[in-house]
Amino acid sequence: MAAEAAGKPFEMFDVVAPIAEVFSHLLFEEFVMVVLTILPLFMGLVAALHVMTGVTQGPLDAEVSGDLGALGSTIHHDIEESTASVQGGMSKVDQHIAELQRGHDQRFADLHKDLAGIVWELSKLRADMARWQALAQLGGRGGSRGATRSGSAAVLPDPSSTSDDSARAAGAAARDLV
């Protein structure tokens, strides 16, 4: 076999045929995995060979190197435009967030005012109820004493028809009876 290989010239088919046969037995997923593994290795090998031989630029790179300043200014201009558009978008978003926050704060302040009003009304109602309860207790005790002293019962005003001033006056009169 060694004598046969020495006399036969090298043909590319001798290398490609076994590789093609191996690839023909692969599933699609296996083929994709082989290609995704081999391609980066091949590109790394080419880059390593370029560095080892000192040829770091290809024919296309030589054309671009003369116009590198113009390319740099074009890229710089594009970056500035995209930065300006991003900053404009961000300022619009910030403005929208500020408007939403102002609306939220206003609704919260209105809710706080409403709750404060409810608490105020409840505290006034509690004070009124305590005052009327005290007047009723004083009227009941004072009325029985007053009836024995003067012969007539003390008359308390109707709580629904009196104002705060008349309620204070009635409370003072009830205290005087006692």
Largest sheet: none
Rounded to the nearest angstrom, the radius of gyration is 50 Å
- Gap between N and C termini, in Å? 138 Å
pLDDT averaged residue by residue: 78
Number of helices: 6
Shape: elongated
Tell me what portion of residues adopts beta-strand conformation: under 5%
Query: What percent of the residues sit in helical stretches (DSSP H or I)?
Result: over 70%
Q: Residue ranges: pLDDT <50 for 5 or more in a row?
A: 150-154
Task: Please report the total strand number as a whole number.
Answer: 0
N-to-C order of helices and strands = HHHHHH
Q: Assign the structural class, choosing from mainly alpha, mainly beta, alpha/beta, alpha+beta, or little secondary structure.
A: mainly alpha
Give structural notes.
This protein has 178 residues and is mostly helical. The protein has 6 helices and no strands. The protein is elongated, with a radius of gyration of 50 Å. Among the domains are: 11-53; 120-154 and 164-178. The model is unreliable at 150-154 (pLDDT under 50).
Layout of helices and strands, plus pairs?
Blueprint: H1 2-7, H2 13-24, H3 28-53, H4 59-65, H5 68-150, H6 164-177
